[in-house]
Design a protein that fits this description.
Keywords: Oxidoreductase, Signal. One of its GO terms (molecular function) is oxidoreductase activity. Belongs to the short-chain dehydrogenases/reductases (SDR) family. InterPro entries: NAD(P)-bd_dom_sf. By secondary structure, the protein is mostly helical. It has a domain of about 120 residues: Rossmann fold, CATH 3.40.50.720. It contains seven helices and five strands; from the N terminus they run αβααββαβααβα. Helix 1 packs parallel to helix 3 and helix 3 packs across helix 7. The mean pLDDT is about 90.
Amino acid sequence: MIGTNYVGAFVLTKLLLPLLENSSVSSKIVNVTSFTHRAVTNLQVDEGIVSGKKFLSSKHYPYAQVYEYSKLCVLLFSFELHRQLTQMGKSHQIFVNVADPGIVRTNIMREVPACLSWFAYFVLKRLRLLQSPDRGKDSIIDAAFAPPGTSGAYFFGGKGRTINPSALSRNAKLAHELWETTCNMLSATPFGNE
């Protein structure tokens, strides 16, 4: 799950970044995250986290915990990319934002017993927290069509609304450690230094 949610976004961005840098028009990178990243209160960055191997030692694979970590990693990566582009003087050309679609009715709970997923969806719907995929896309569209110059923002809830993510996700030292660890794990060099 970390490979799909975080490492995949990292690699795809790395591959596309030279094209974005050489583009004659400004570009936007939008990564999708989740409010569940707030459940992670401490993160020790190492290759075990980035590769996902840390979670394989459990008797039962901790789906929720891995999802939370993966979405925190997406945020840390996005904010670090924004910082690096700013330092390289390219933040006027490439904008990086994150979008949180909220709780959307999808098949994400397909591995959970049917009675539990039904109950969870029932409760979330009663609390008016569950939304359709059509509504869930709003924050992603907001991030993609944000006004020029908007970068490093966390979009949530539609209508162009931005909110503050967790303090941990804004930890620049942690974000840089994650960046370096991911580059080392992938035998890559940091963006822009190739």
